[in-house]
């Protein structure tokens, strides 16, 4: 089951803005089960229905005693829906606080995923713990949902000694082997052939690993996109490509990015299914991802899933989107916020309430503020760690550089 929703003692902390509409006032929660939602997804070529779960694979989410227990109005297993909602709200809270810290000069750079939480978390929650994630730019918090602790996650942005990658990566690029998630590449599209390579390795080994390979819409213009999809199609590797179509690649809109009607249809050129879903609809993403992951695990090859969503904020803390896009477009998408949508559906389904929501928001804000304080207090990484982890045994020329660097720092410290 999802972690119980606790009452926060930190009532003084300001909660993030609660959805205004009362659950009762909100109609039209889709009551269709996951399979029906998948059928509604615009499929270029519908993948075959998934069969029974792969033998031996441990489901990430425990089922309730009744098996496929579904929230009435949600179309997801209850525990998945609640854990997903918590994860979505948690990263929204983190993003709001970190953007503020950046403006306060406490961190150098930050990239938020605001508005896109369902488009990747509802897919990642369908994975087994042994599966891998190759993120693009905005999927970092799948790590948190899969069990990575918050303090080292935030310490990565501060780049200090509490960061598992020892402050050597650009801020907002976390990674950890403990949860099978690699770093953002930052070079657009490079993660795609790498993900295909990892999936191919799994196939050669004969294990049941599936790889989720995320990309933004911008990555579909990169040569690596075509290389990766072609190879994956020919070798039928167990990879699911997920394109988060958030309508913008910094200042380039969809119209400037592709002449195709959809991104999903590009899969047809490589001989595997492409499926487009509403990326702000958690149940639709979950259903389509579950099916694509099952297909990959059965050895039937890749799927390209396009999750249509919207980047509500700036490209990064270094960007000013008002210079290239119309506020009316942003306002229209604000009405389709994925967190508010899932909140309404959870309430409609009898799983959630305004009171529980307020308590969760207070709890998460207190947790995030405490974690920020702990992460910010971390010491600088030791200078010699700069040379760790690339080589099993440091080659002579790097040993020389390290010794020279440390001697120079020691001289500096001694005031020489
Ligand atoms: C190969 C390469 N070209 C250009 C850039 C500069 N750049 C950084 S992010 C970005 C846009 C990415 O857009 P998209 O893939 O849609 O992801 P989003 O930011 O929307 O999540 C570009 C062009 C880069 N990092 N790498
Ligand atoms: Mg984009």
UniProtKB/TrEMBL annotation:
| Cofactors, names only | thiamine diphosphate
The cross-references to Pfam families, in alphabetical order and at most eight, read: E1_dh
- Note down the stretches annotated as region Disordered: 1-24, 47-69
User: Kind of enzyme, top EC level?
Assistant: oxidoreductase
* Record-listed E.C. numbers: 1.2.4.4
Which SUPFAM superfamilies does the entry link to? Thiamin diphosphate-binding fold (THDP-binding)
One example of the protein's molecular function in GO is: branched-chain 2-oxo acid dehydrogenase activity
UniProt keywords, alphabetically: Oxidoreductase, Thiamine pyrophosphate
Q: Where is the Dehydrogenase E1 component domain?
A: 85-384
**Source species, domain of life:** Bacteria
* Low complexity biased stretches: 11-24, 47-59
GO annotation, biological process: branched-chain amino acid catabolic process
The reaction(s) annotated as catalysed by this protein in its Swiss-Prot or TrEMBL entry are: N(6)-[(R)-lipoyl]-L-lysyl-[protein] + 3-methyl-2-oxobutanoate + H(+) = N(6)-[(R)-S(8)-2-methylpropanoyldihydrolipoyl]-L-lysyl-[protein] + CO2
Q: What does this protein do?
A: The branched-chain alpha-keto dehydrogenase complex catalyzes the overall conversion of alpha-keto acids to acyl-CoA and CO(2). It contains multiple copies of three enzymatic components: branched-chain alpha-keto acid decarboxylase (E1), lipoamide acyltransferase (E2) and lipoamide dehydrogenase (E3).
Q: What is the similarity comment for this entry?
A: Belongs to the BCKDHA family.
What protein name is recorded for this chain? 2-oxoisovalerate dehydrogenase subunit alpha
The species is Vulgatibacter incomptus
Its lineage opens with:
Bacteria, Pseudomonadati, Myxococcota, Myxococcia, Myxococcales
